[in-house]
Amino acid sequence: MTRWACTLVLVGLGLGGVAAADDAPAAEDAPAGAEPKLLPTSGAATPAASDAPVSFSHQGQIQVSLRLALGMRAIIPYEKGEYCGTTEAGSTNGNAAVCTGRAPFSFDLEVGYGVAKKIDALVELRLGLETDFTAAAGQSGGPRIFHLAPGARFFFSDAKTSKVFTQVQLLFDFTGYSGLGGGSRGSDFGVRNLNGLWFDLDRAYGFYAYVGETATFSRWLRFELEVGIGASARFR
């Protein structure tokens, strides 16, 4: 009786082991060509390169800018009675002692380079769209504004794509004004400043609005105040 009991116990243990082996998934049962699953790594995921913040600094970029402005000016001749664009009853030769009015329309073409994170070096060329006053009242065919102004632009208060800027320049005015005798009144020189708000829509382009002041001293005293807008394209 004991021998049969032992035999039955051994047979039961053997059947149980076979069933357990059948229930366990075999390595060869995995689908053909399937890659082994990797365990998730601990810690924060590494950010992709495209997630890095975009810099809107102009450093290392060549820049081309075009702007238009509306300006008011005052001209004070050094010689009493010299014509400067307006007349005045009762004055010497009928010419105004101080000439005030709108400056002729012109446009500015600027070429620059970002020498530092917040500094651009530049050269501005201004070309007149309208003619200016002649040597005497009633004449026509006056000269068009033509000046060169090298300088630098400085940025402040960056707020991602917008920033405040100030621009300082030396100005060399080569506009061909003539005197009563037909001779040239020579060139002029002075200083120029722009202050405004700059918006970079992309690393390659942006636009800005500004207020500008100009003063020249050689030919006569001239003061000009202007407001304008501009657009800039940049590339390496």
Question: What can you tell me about this protein's structure?
Answer:
The protein has 236 residues and is mainly beta. The protein has a single domain (62-235), classed as Porin, CATH 2.40.160.20. The model is unreliable at 4-11 and 24-28 (pLDDT under 50). The radius of gyration is 39 Å and the shape is elongated. Helices cover 9% and strands 48% of the residues. An 8-stranded antiparallel beta barrel has the order 1-3-4-5-6-7-8-9. It has one helix at 2-23; strands at 62-76, 99-102, 106-116, 119-131, 144-159, 162-173, 188-202, 205-216, 221-235. A hairpin with a 2-residue loop joins strand 3 and strand 4.
Keywords, please?
single chain; 236 residues; mainly beta; Porin; 9 strands; 48% strand; elongated
